[in-house]
C-alpha cells in the first residue's frame, strides 16, 4: 500500500510532469472506483492541471479549481505514460486498469498521461471529482500530518494521552495521524525501540519524545529516498529501505536478532524482539484464539 512517502513522491512527480497540461479526458474503466457523480468526471475535460497536493495518503490534482482526488488503497498504483496518443480505447474488464487520465500534448507533440491500476481481488481504489478536497470524507476526517510544523512533541503527547489503544493501531489510524500505514508503523516502532502492543496512554514523556523523533525522521528519510525517482521505481525503493517490515526471518540490522511476525488486525506486523520487546517474542493473538 502506498503510504505518505510514496504519495508525496508521486505528488512531486506529477507536479513536474502534469502541471501546465490540460486534461483531454478521463476514462473510467472500473466504475466502482468512481465515488462521486457531481460534478461529473467529464467536467475535467479542457481544464488545466494547476497544482498537485497530498492529503495523508490521498493524491489531489487541482484542475482549474476542480479537484481530481484519488486514494490508491492497498493494491493500487499510478503508472505514468509519456504518450497516450496511440493507446487503445479502454474497455471494462478483468485487467488491473481502473482509470486513465489523458493530458494535452507537450512541445514534443506527445500526449502524456497516467493510469491508475489496482491488483488483487479486493477493489478499494477510489477516485473523487470535487470542488473542495474537504468534500472527500476520508480527507475531512484526517488527523494531523506528521510532516507538518504543527505536529510537535506536545501535539503527539495530547494524542496518546488517555488513549487505551495499542500504539501500532494508533499509528495506523488516519483520523489520529495522517499518512502512516502498516509498513511505516512497523519501521517507526523499530526506530523508537517500542513494542507494537504497548498501550498509548502508558508512554512516558521521554517515550513520547522518542516516538515523535522516530515518526518524523523515518518519514522524512523515506521521502528523501523517494524524491526524484520515477513512479515505476517507488515500490522497489520502498521495499529496499525497510528494516523490519516484510523481513520476517531475516536478521535485524541493528542487533542481529531474528525479525519476527505476528498477526495484527487485518494484516500482520514485523518487529525485532531484542530491540522492541526486551527479547521476548510476542504472542500471536489471532492464532491463540483459533486454538481455544
UniProtKB/TrEMBL annotation:
Residues 243-277 form the FPG-type domain. It catalyses: Hydrolysis of DNA containing ring-opened 7-methylguanine residues, releasing 2,6-diamino-4-hydroxy-5-(N-methyl)formamidopyrimidine. CDD domains: BaFpgNei_N_1. SUPFAM superfamilies: Glucocorticoid receptor-like (DNA-binding domain) (SSF57716), N-terminal domain of MutM-like DNA repair proteins (SSF81624), S13-like H2TH domain (SSF46946). It comes from the Bacteria. Its cofactor is Zn(2+). PROSITE patterns: FPG_CAT, ZF_FPG_2. Residues 2-93 form the Formamidopyrimidine-DNA glycosylase catalytic domain. InterPro entries: FPG_cat, FPG_N, H2TH_FPG, Ribosomal_uS13-like_H2TH, Znf_DNA_glyclase/AP_lyase, Znf_FPG/IleRS. Keywords: DNA damage, DNA repair, DNA-binding, Glycosidase, Hydrolase, Lyase, Metal-binding, Multifunctional enzyme, Zinc, Zinc-finger. Gene3D superfamilies: 1.10.8.50, MutM-like, N-terminal. Belongs to the FPG family. This is Formamidopyrimidine-DNA glycosylase. It comes from Microbispora corallina.
Amino acid at each position: 500500500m502506498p503510504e505518505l512517502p510514496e504519495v508525496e513522491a508521486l505528488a512531486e512527480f506529477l507536479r513536474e510532469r502534469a502541471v501546465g497540461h490540460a486534461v483531454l479526458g478521463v476514462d473510467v474503466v472500473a466504475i466502482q472506483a468512481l465515488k462521486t457523480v457531481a460534478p461529473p468526471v467529464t467536467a475535467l475535460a479542457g481544464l488545466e492541471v494547476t497544482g498537485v497536493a497530498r492529503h495523508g495518503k490521498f493524491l489531489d490534482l487541482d484542475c482549474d479549481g476542480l479537484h481530481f482526488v484519488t486514494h490508491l488503497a492497498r493494491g493500487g498504483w499510478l503508472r505514468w505514460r509519456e504518450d497516450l496518443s496511440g493507446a487503445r480505447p479502454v474497455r471494462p474488464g478483468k485487467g488491473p486498469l481502473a482509470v486513465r487520465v489523458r493530458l494535452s500534448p507537450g512541445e514534443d507533440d506527445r500526449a502524456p498521461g497516467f493510469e491508475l491500476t489496482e491488483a488483487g481481488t479486493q477493489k478499494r481504489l477510489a477516485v473523487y471529482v470535487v470542488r473542495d478536497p474537504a468534500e472527500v470524507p476520508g480527507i475531512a476526517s484526517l488527523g494531523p500530518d506528521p510532516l507538518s510544523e504543527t505536529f510537535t512533541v506536545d501535539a503527539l503527547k495530547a494524542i496518546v494521552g488517555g488513549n487505551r489503544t495499542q500504539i501500532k493501531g494508533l499509528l495506523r489510524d488516519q483520523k489520529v495521524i495522517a499518512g502512516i500505514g502498516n509498513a511505516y508503523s512497523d519501521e517507526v516502532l523499530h526506530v523508537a525501540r517500542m513494542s507494537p502492543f504497548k498501550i498509548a496512554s502508558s508512554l512516558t514523556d521521554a517515550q513520547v519524545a522518542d516516538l515523535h523523533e522516530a515518526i518524523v525522521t523515518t518519514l522524512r528519510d523515506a521521502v528523501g529516498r523517494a524524491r526524484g525517482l520515477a513512479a515505476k521505481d517507488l515500490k522497489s525503493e520502498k521495499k529496499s529501505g525497510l528494516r523490519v517490515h516484510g523481513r520476517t526471518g531475516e536478521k535485524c540490522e541493528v542487533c542481529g536478532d531474528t525479525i519476527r511476525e505476528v498477526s495484527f488486525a487485518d494484516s500482520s506486523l514485523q518487529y525485532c524482539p531484542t530491540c522492541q520487546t526486551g527479547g521476548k517474542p510476542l504472542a500471536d493473538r489471532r492464532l491463540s484464539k483459533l486454538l481455544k
